[in-house]
Amino acid sequence: MFCExxxxxxxxxxxxxxxxxxxxxxEAAPAAPAKPSFFATLLAKAKAIHQKNKLIFPxxxxxxxxxxxxxxxxxxxxxxxxxxxxxxxxTEGYDGYGxxxxxxxxxxxxxxxxxxxxxxxxxxxxxxxxxxxxxxxSDVSKDYRDNFKDAQRLVDSIEWEITxxxxxxxxxxxxxxxxxxxxxCKESYAEDLGLTLQDLTFEYTVEGLDEIVxxxxxxxxxxxxEGYDGYGxxxxxxxxxxxxxIGGLVFDMTEGESYISYHxxxxxxxxxxxxxxxxxxxxxxxxxxxxxxxxxxxxxxVESAGVKLINLEKEYTVENLKExxxxxxxxxxxxxxxxxxxxxxxxxxxKQETATFGNYTVNLQNGEWTKNGEYVGYTSVYLNDSYSLSxxxxxxxxxxxxxxxxxxxxxxxxxxxQNFTISNLGTYATALSEILxxxxxxxxxxxxxxxxxxxxxxxxxxxxxxGSYSKQSVGDDMKLYKMVLTTPKSSSSYNKNVLWMIYxxxxxxxxxxxxxxxxxxxxxxxxxxxxxxxLYAGDYSTRYxxxxxxxxxxxxxxxxxxxxxxVSE
Length: 569
Known about the structure:
Elements: H1 38-52, H2 61-77, E1 80-82, E2 87-92, E3 99-104, H3 106-113, H4 124-127, H5 148-156, E4 159-163, E5 178-184, H6 187-192, E6 196-198, E7 201-205, E8 213-215, E9 221-226, E10 233-238, E11 242-246, E12 249-253, E13 260-264, E14 271-273, E15 276-277, E16 289-293, H7 302-305, E17 307-309, E18 313-317, E19 325-327, E20 333-338, E21 345-350, E22 354-357, E23 360-363, E24 368-371, E25 374-378, E26 380-383, E27 394-400, H8 403-409, E28 411-413, E29 417-421, E30 427-428, H9 439-455, H10 457-462, E31 473-474, E32 479-488, E33 498-508, E34 516-525, E35 528-529, E36 535-536, E37 541-543, H11 550-559, E38 562-567
Parallel strand pairs: 1-6, 8-17, 19-28
Antiparallel strand pairs: 2-3, 4-5, 5-7, 9-10, 11-12, 12-13, 13-14, 15-16, 16-18, 20-21, 22-23, 23-24, 24-25, 26-27, 27-29, 30-35, 31-33, 32-33, 32-38, 33-34, 34-37, 35-36
Helix pairs in contact: 1-2, 3-5
């Protein structure tokens, strides 16, 4: 049987415990006794020590037993070592890009293993000395040399394994991440030293990482336009002057510059950031969109300075360019196409000598431009084709000028190129019905006949150069008698057609006693008509002597040499 108080085994039937003196009130069960508690075991050991040494400790039995039990407890507890206390863990960097460094205190743990209970964890001063694994026995005091080799063997067996959160790695850690640390060693070596190792596996929560600062570099730049709308130049310029400390970087900015300089807080060398305009910077107009970007990634400065770049691309709108003076120069020139289809001509001529546009003056004759009396440049006005033109041809009129010169000067030419499709050139007549207007030709022809009669009456009326004619008389009844449109019978003739204008008039002289109607023919070669039906009779006309009979005139002049095409009523 066993004492219920101290757990000492007693002879069956005992009334009192001879160990602690407690009264035994009931007999223990014959079955195997329950395992005594930890403290009951300690008290039993203490009682036994006291009985053995009662002459040495002449103190009241109960007090001695308790004192001995406490000594045993603290001895056992003193052999328990929390290994994680000897792991030095430090963090550095920025939230999301942090590093954790694990440094085991080999010397600190080694000194604890040899028995130095004052070393309760990682001791930075001890770690600055030699590594315990490579120390000599003589390097420690005599009090700790007995266990030195065993402790050194234990320390040398230590290694550890780090498990990071999923999708994380060292250098990409954030505050709040939990890291699992597992320290491994030969625990049997620890048992040889009487040590009980605890906390070989534990978790570490990351903290103390600095916050990342966002930086919008392009917010410190404005798009500045210079010059005139349509011909402006744009560039990026810094809009701030001064120094800004952002994260671990120092930025030095000067308003109006195309860059900003920076350096790390603990370094002196500097570098610069230049935003890039991704399009041509010239010949811009108000309202144009300009794409700007930085040649950096968002993470360029994150790990080194805790600065994250944002908004690496930005769209600017061009504005504040001065308005250019718009000039429609071609409107100050006449552009004409004359002549016949296939051989027409184009001509461009100024409507006036000079023209003024605001502060600008142009001499339309020679194309010289001045502004407030100062020379600006020259313009020329051309037709790209001026000869052998036909109806349906397209001819371009354009202004030739230096775009850079006039753009910089603030002159913007509009409608500087215009196409003209020719449709008004004359076409050779093929029928009298095409000729709608011929009054001008008739008037010229009648004058032609009158002049002939007045200049040479004999040749005009009697078809010879001699004779004496008096009492010459021309009636006032001259009129257009007939129109005959013909083509030459000869295939080798260059003439396209021939228009015969026949005029009748009453004539008398001393040989023509009775007034007689005479017929005069005026021949026009290569006759053409315009779109409006107007007649082009050419520059060459032939007159013939008069005939007293139209039929005779027709037979001798027309029918003999031409194909009759069309005869008017």
